[in-house]
């Protein structure tokens, strides 16, 4: 796995062996950051269910000022920390270990990316419900294309869906 663009373009990121972590495919990450390009500079970006941290690191590479990584797995947290260290960007990031539902209420971010394990579909409703009560400007959920997420969660309303084969990105923004 590698960083797609920006400051750390082509740098290799460490991953976890096995199938417990499902990294966001390169092409989907590239599509995501093409959409975010006009909005990413200087923001605080939260990578929730972070796995290897590839999405949050991509955000930092492309101009986010800070990234918050939330991950439950100790092994994955160790990999995130190694990836941040290898790029020399530990000072631009905070890594929080714990269940997303427990940590989300205490974070403040401009853009929040959630990507729960696909076999834990109730996590989408839980996380989006929490985020719908907060002030994030943009929430993006990566999910299986077959999964139908709600049109709104609290203050958040879905504004766009980007499909890439079996994966989709749903974009939610506050009601105006």
List keywords for this structure.
alpha/beta; 8 strands; 8-stranded mixed sheet; Rossmann fold; single chain; 176 residues
What can be said about this structure in brief?
Helices cover 27% and strands 26% of the residues. The chain has 176 residues and is of the alpha/beta class. The radius of gyration is 15 Å and the shape is globular.
Question: What this model shows, in words?
Answer:
- The chain has helices spanning 26-36, 54-61, 74-87, 100-103, 122-131, and strands spanning 44-48, 66-71, 93-97, 111-114, 138-144, 152-153, 156-164, 167-174.
- The chain has 176 residues and is of the alpha/beta class.
- It has a single domain (6-174), classed as Vaccinia Virus protein VP39 (Rossmann fold, 3-Layer(aba) Sandwich).
- An eight-stranded mixed beta sheet has the order 3-2-1-4-5-8-7-6.
- Helix 2 (54-61) links the parallel strand 1 and strand 2 (66-71).
- The termini are far apart.
């Amino acid at each position: 796995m590698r960083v797609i663009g920006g400051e750390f373009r082509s740098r290799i990121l460490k991953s976890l062996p096995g199938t417990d972590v499902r990294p966001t495919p390169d092409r989907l990450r590239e599509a995501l950051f093409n959409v975010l390009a006009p909005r990413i500079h200087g923001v605080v970006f939260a990578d929730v269910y972070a796995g290897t941290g590839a999405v949050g690191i991509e955000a930092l590479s492309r101009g986010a000022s800070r990234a918050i990584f939330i991950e439950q797995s100790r092994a994955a947290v160790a990999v995130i920390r190694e990836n941040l260290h290898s790029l020399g960007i530990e000072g631009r990031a905070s890594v929080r270990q714990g269940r997303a539902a427990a940590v989300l209420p205490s974070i403040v971010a401009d853009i929040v990316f959630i990507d729960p394990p696909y076999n834990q579909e109730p996590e989408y409703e839980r996380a989006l419900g929490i985020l719908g009560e907060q002030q994030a400007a943009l929430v993006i959920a990566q999910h299986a294309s077959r999964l139908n997420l709600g049109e709104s969660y609290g203050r958040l309303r879905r504004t766009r869906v980007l499909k890439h084969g079996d994966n989709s990105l749903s974009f939610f923004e506050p009601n105006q």
